[in-house]
Design brief:
Layout lengths: L1 E2 L6 H12 L14 E2 L10 H17 L8 H15 L6
Antiparallel strand pairs: 1-2
Helix pairs in contact: 1-2, 2-3
Length: about 90
């Protein structure tokens, strides 16, 4: 679950991502509608390149809509995670 920044129209961010990047993320229902985003990451969607693309699209949409986000922070955190996990041995085989 991802909370949207104050003052940012959650549905406008979702529409921007779909229109400009072809990335669709979900809203919620009831009292949480317009306050959170749900980003699915199962199967093909959870491939590294898709996760990085979705983060990039979300950042671009938030910046375009005027959200106070630190440019590149989420993408750099994801890249650091992938870099670290690539060095760890696989033990659950």
């Amino acid at each position: 679950m991802h909370y949207r920044p104050d003052g940012i129209d959650a549905d406008a961010v979702r529409a921007f991502m779909l229109s400009h990047f072809g990335v669709e993320i979900a809203s919620s229902f009831g009292p949480l509608h317009g306050k959170i985003w749900r980003i699915g990451s199962m199967g093909y969607s959870c491939r590294k390149e898709n996760v990085l693309f979705t983060l990039s699209a979300l950042e671009a949409a938030l910046l375009y809509k005027g959200a106070p986000v630190k440019s590149g922070k989420a993408l750099q955190a994801a890249l650091a995670y992938y870099d670290q996990s690539a060095r760890e041995p696989v033990t659950n085989v």
